[in-house]
């Protein structure tokens, strides 16, 4: 479709019979994530980068009831990289009054620009939250989750978009501190991604997790594998079992 037609009819960006069109896919995935308990109470979300366009779920909408007409569409090439409080360029804004783009927008852009991701998922999984509570920060304020010798590690990619890890690899995911406003997590997430370039996700204490991938399939697969690992890690911790090899101090 030409740029002219998009300007004449922005809704053409979200109209498609293809179930894997980003506007349709975001709605389906949000329903699936709702059933998993990942995006209850309007929290959490997903963004998909499709060519030069970024499709974004709205903020404050029941995720299991999202419709393609609720989707925001932004050009990937923004006048300025999205930051907390910054003005964004839009190709399509929903006509329904009261809708705002996801507060996660600048955090999604971290994944798009720093890892060349094509999709980023944010969940409020209880497994992720509980795991962060069991991993306090050290004296320098740093915290990570590390686990090895688990089959599901093989579903995680180096940096979120590289080759998959092996059973013998140790998975390490940074944990950053929460902030009252979601957008203010942007800088902390960026610093964590710089410090841990091999990590395919960032955990947020008392909040949830951000996971990305080179495609929506990769992002979804890794979100599912990580949630499994978060759950088993919590159970292992509470049972007094080491998470890495045989090191009881891990």
Explain the layout of strands and helices.
Blueprint: H1 3-8, H2 22-35, E1 45-50, E2 53-56, E3 58-59, E4 72-75, E5 100-101, H3 105-114, E6 119-123, H4 126-133, E7 144-148, E8 170-176, H5 186-195, E9 201-204, E10 208-213, H6 216-238
Parallel strand pairs: 8-9
Antiparallel strand pairs: 1-2, 1-6, 2-4, 3-5, 6-10, 7-8, 9-10
Pathway: Amino-acid biosynthesis; L-methionine biosynthesis via salvage pathway; L-methionine from S-methyl-5-thio-alpha-D-ribose 1-phosphate: step 2/6
EC number: 4.2.1.109
GO cellular component, one term: cytoplasm
Summarize the structure.
The protein is of the alpha+beta class and 250 residues long. The protein has helices at 3-8, 22-35, 105-114, 126-133, 186-195, 216-238; strands spanning 45-50, 53-56, 58-59, 72-75, 100-101, 119-123, 144-148, 170-176, 201-204, 208-213. It is found in: Cytoplasm.
């Amino acid at each position: 479709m030409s740029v002219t037609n998009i300007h004449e009819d922005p809704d053409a960006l979200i109209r498609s019979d293809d179930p894997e069109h980003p506007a349709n896919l975001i709605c389906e995935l949000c329903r699936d994530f709702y059933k998993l308990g990942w995006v209850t109470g309007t929290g959490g979300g997903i963004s998909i980068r499709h060519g030069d366009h970024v499709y974004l779920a709205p903020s404050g909408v029941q995720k299991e009831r999202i419709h393609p007409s609720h989707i925001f569409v932004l050009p990937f090439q923004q006048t300025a990289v999205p930051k907390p409080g910054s003005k964004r360029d839009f190709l399509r804004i929903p006509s329904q009054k009261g809708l705002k783009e996801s507060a996660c927008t600048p955090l999604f852009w971290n994944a798009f620009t720093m890892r060349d991701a094509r999709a980023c998922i944010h969940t409020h999984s209880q497994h992720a939250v509980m795991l962060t509570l069991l991993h306090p920060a050290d004296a320098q304020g740093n915290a990570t989750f590390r686990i090895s010798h688990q089959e599901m590690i093989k579903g995680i990619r180096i940096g979120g978009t590289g080759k998959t890890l092996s059973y013998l690899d140790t998975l390490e995911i940074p944990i950053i501190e929460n902030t009252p406003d979601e957008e203010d997590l942007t800088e902390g997430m960026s610093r964590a991604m710089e410090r841990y370039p091999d990590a395919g996700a960032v955990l947020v204490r008392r909040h949830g997790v951000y996971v990305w991938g080179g495609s929506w399939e990769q992002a979804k697969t890794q979100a599912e594998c990580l949630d499994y690992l978060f759950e088993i890690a919590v159970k292992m911790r509470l049972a007094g079992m080491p998470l890495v090899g045989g090191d009881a101090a891990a």
